[in-house]
Design a protein that fits this description.
Layout (H helix, E strand, L loop, with lengths): L2 E6 L4 H11 L7 E8 L3 E8 L2 H6 L10 E7 L14 E2 L5 E7 L4 H10 L10 H12 L5 H11 L4 E7 L2 E10 L6 E5 L2 E5 L11 E4 L5 E5 L3 E4 L5 E2 L3 E3 L3 H5 L7 H7 L1 H9 L3 E2 L4 E2 L8 H6 L2 E6 L2 H17 L3 E5 H4 L10 E7 L5 H12 L3 E6 L5 H5 L2 E4 L12 H20 L5 H21 L4 H10 L4 E6 L3 H16 L2 E6 L15 E6 L6 H12 L4 E7 L11 E5 L4 H7 L1 H14 L18
Parallel strand pairs: 18-19, 18-20, 20-21, 21-22, 23-24, 23-25, 25-26, 26-27
Antiparallel strand pairs: 1-4, 1-10, 2-3, 2-4, 5-6, 6-7, 7-8, 8-12, 9-10, 9-11, 11-15, 12-13, 13-14, 16-17
Helix pairs in contact: 4-5, 8-14, 8-15, 10-14, 10-17, 16-20, 17-20
């Protein structure tokens, strides 16, 4: 999740862009850069490693005079935070400057093709591929709009791109694809500003247009034109930014919870930053403090957490055993701390928590430390007690989560656990290069897949109008889907106050099936994974007793939808990806049911965001 600011107008571009980058620094601060055009002949590039203050210092007080420019503040994804990897990036002719937020999923394939054509790359980033493609199309006497349309058609993934061309110094180009993080454009009073967050625009304008998926914009001092990917003009919708956006930060969403659900595609991109080597198709965790010898010395893993974090720990158990090859267990923090767990210096204890201040989890960490275990925490708040107690920390990079019912931090926990499991398996030689390559591809697809899923809420709104009447819900899953079912049941309890419980589907016939009647609805997680057939049989047992079933199914499944009352679809993907994306229906269903019931979504009764007492 990177920050982007572009300006074209009559004022000096540098101060406006710098101010915008400082506003967006929460989105990334391992490097930054600006390009400023001062027609007809002067172009200045400035880059710096570190925070925006380093970029400001790079000009030694001499502010560039140009009135057109682009700026970027970065979390590294492809390539480490170095000057050569800092944005903006240019093509081989130096004619195009590009800044970018997202992941080009097929960047290796594109880079190999371009290299075979004679292109020479100067960075490790996927962004540079975009600049090379644009310059290649322009050299064939095509327009800027045609060059951008070519990029949209060739790159895969969730991406937001802003660029300028030295041969067209009066304009800025932008596009958004794959449900990437947003791009907002302000055009008024003989100037235009484009940014990845409206907060960078607010000091200058209170009216913006948001680029939709697949749209391309040409922005100049005097006009703004928007096209679809076929270059057919479309009409941009202008939105007045309410004052409360700057005060309470809901960014126009009705609730913080919905805002935070919608941020998850960007959150995943942020988490992946610097933790995947796309060139080597491998995982890297430079922040992990354990040597290779210490990793190889580990014998077991224990995962601990409370509430949503405990559900993440349960899925983490599957992930760790599958990817790292280490025997793993998950346990509620409140239970772990009050027994005598058999752990020692060869045990890795992984605590999971949003705030890093949950009393039960801190107590469990202290218990583990007293027995000599190695302690790692997955946390969203740097400097919290958990990050100070642990030997190592893997930060979620989610930004502030205000909604009491955790959403984006649950997703963050799952992604980090996957990266950690793969990293440990890679270091221990448990997984081979082919498996690593598949994992890198799987996880890099997630921002786009989840962005696509978050683009359509209509099925959830429709189902909520029926399900909100039920007072009892049963959530079912098998294997790694069971923790997702637990999380779905927890969300519905937290914000709608409906009684819900989750079971491994194979356990239904051992007791819970006695609950099935016309007052109970069942939500069954049944994508086409290795346990699909067994899950189908469990669903048939419920339908044979006239139970109402809503099934979460894979796209293209033509069999199970005929046997249930309602369906929600998720993309057909690997088992790992299926498990992670199945989180989205659980969150949106709970949210819209709570809305139907008139509940206080952000501040549900009897709950607090962080439980700092026992």
């Amino acid at each position: 999740m990177c920050g982007i600011v572009g300006y074209v107008g009559r004022r000096q571009a540098w101060p406006i862009i710098i101010q915008g980058l400082e506003t967006l620094e929460y989105r990334g601060y391992d490097s930054s850069g600006i390009v400023v055009l001062d027609p007809p002949n002067n172009t200045e590039f400035h880059r710096a490693v570190g925070k925006v203050k380093e970029l400001k210092a790079s000009i030694n007080g001499r502010v560039p005079a140009g009135t057109v420019g682009l700026g970027h503040t970065r979390w590294a994804t492809h390539g480490k935070p170095t000057l050569s990897n800092a944005h903006p990036h240019t093509g081989p002719l130096g004619k195009v400057a590009v800044v970018h937020n997202g992941i080009v999923e097929n960047f290796l394939e594109l880079k190999r093709t371009l290299t075979a054509e004679g292109h020479v790359f100067t960075s490790e980033t996927d962004t540079e591929v975009i600049a090379h493609i644009i310059e290649g199309v322009l050299s064939a006497d095509k327009t800027l709009e045609q060059a951008f349309a070519s990029v949209v058609s060739r790159i895969q993934g969730a991406n937001a791109v802003v660029a300028l061309c030295l041969d067209h110094p009066d304009r800025i180009m932008a596009f958004r694809s794959g449900h990437a993080g947003g791009l907002a454009i302000s055009h008024q009073d003989s100037e235009s500003i484009v940014a990845s967050d409206v907060h960078a625009i607010l000091p200058h304008s209170s009216t913006v247009t948001f680029l939709e998926d697949g749209e391309i914009a040409t922005i100049s001092e005097n006009r703004m034109d928007i096209f679809n990917s076929q270059l057919i003009p479309v009409t941009g919708k202008f939105h007045s930014i309410p004052l409360e956006w700057t005060v309470v930060g809901k960014d126009g969403y009705r609730h913080f919870m919905l805002k935070e659900i919608m941020e998850q595609s960007q959150v995943i991109s942020q988490i992946l930053s610097g933790r995947i080597d796309f060139e080597k198709q491998s995982f890297q965790l430079d922040e992990l403090p354990f040597s290779l010898a210490e990793i190889n010395d580990l014998q077991t893993i224990r995962l601990i957490g409370s509430g949503t974090s405990y559900n993440a720990a349960l899925l983490g158990r599957y992930i760790m055993e599958t990817l790292s090859g280490l025997p793993s267990e998950a346990e509620s923090s409140s239970e772990f701390r009050y027994r005598e767990p058999i752990i020692n210096e060869k045990t890795l204890v992984i605590s999971i928590g949003q705030s890093g201040e949950t009393a039960d989890t801190l107590g469990a960490m202290a218990e583990a430390r007293s027995k000599g275990a190695r302690i790692l925490t997955i946390c969203n708040v740097d400097g919290s007690q958990a990050t100070r107690m642990a030997e190592g920390k893997l930060l979620m990079r989610c930004g502030l989560e205000i909604g009491v019912a955790s959403t984006k931090t649950f997703m963050a926990s799952l992604i980090i656990l996957t990266i950690l499991g793969a990293y440990l398996g890679q270091k221990r030689g448990f997984i081979d290069k082919e498996t690593l390559s598949e994992l890198v591809a799987d996880i890099s697809h997630l921002p786009r897949l989840i962005g696509d899923m978050l683009g359509n809420h209509d099925p959830y709104k429709k189902l909520s109008r029926e399900l909100f009447r039920y007072e009892h819900l049963i959530y079912l899953g098998r294997g790694p889907m069971y923790p997702i079912a637990l999380e779905g049941a927890l969300k519905i309890k937290e914000i709608s106050y409906i009684h819900a419980e989750a079971h491994p589907a194979g356990e239904m016939k051992h007791g819970p099936i006695a609950l099935i009647d016309d007052r109970v609805a069942t939500i069954a997680l049944a994508p086409q994974t290795a346990l699909y057939e067994k899950m189908m049989n469990n669903i048939k047992e419920i339908k044979a007793r006239d139970g109402m079933v809503l099934a979460v199914v894979s796209e293209g499944d033509n069999e199970l939808p005929q046997q249930v009352d309602h369906i929600l679809q998720i993309p057909k993907a690997s088992d790992l990806v299926n498990t992670i994306v199945a989180t989205i229906p659980m969150q949106l269903l709970a949210y819209y049911i709570a809305i139907q019931r008139g509940c206080d979504v952000d501040q549900p009764r009897n709950l607090a965001k962080s439980v700092t007492v026992e």
